[in-house]
Design a protein that fits this description.
This protein is an all-alpha fold. Helix content is 87%, strand content 0%. It has one domain. The chain has 2 helices and no strands. Helix 1 runs antiparallel to helix 2.
């Protein structure tokens, strides 16, 4: 079941449970309270699963950002080397032109 559907089902049961709480005897655990406990259990489990999925997604995004940063650094260094070579060639051409 999808988390969204699970949430709506849990919400519907919670509303029913809330409306029936005035009808049950305090000493007995009736079907409404059992259903409420089950809803609590399912909701906690779904929350834990969503938290785990969020943590895993965050780790994947962090790793992708790190790799992207490394690639950008490499590209920047390579561009810097090429610009430096171009500057050296310009200086060499200027020296040759001056010496003529």
């Amino acid at each position: 079941m999808k988390p969204r559907n699970l949430f709506y089902a849990a919400l519907a049961v919670a509303i029913v449970v809330a409306s029936l709480t005035g009808c049950q005897k305090p000493a007995e655990v009736g079907p409404a309270e059992q259903a409420g406990r089950k809803i609590d259990e399912v909701t906690q489990k779904a929350g834990a699963e969503l938290s785990q999925a969020a943590r895993e997604t965050n780790e994947q995004l962090s790793e992708a950002a790190k790799k992207t940063s490394e690639k950008l650094n490499e590209a920047t260094e390579e561009a810097g080397r090429k610009i430096e070579k171009a500057g050296e060639k310009i200086q060499e051409s200027a020296r040759e032109a001056r010496d003529k």
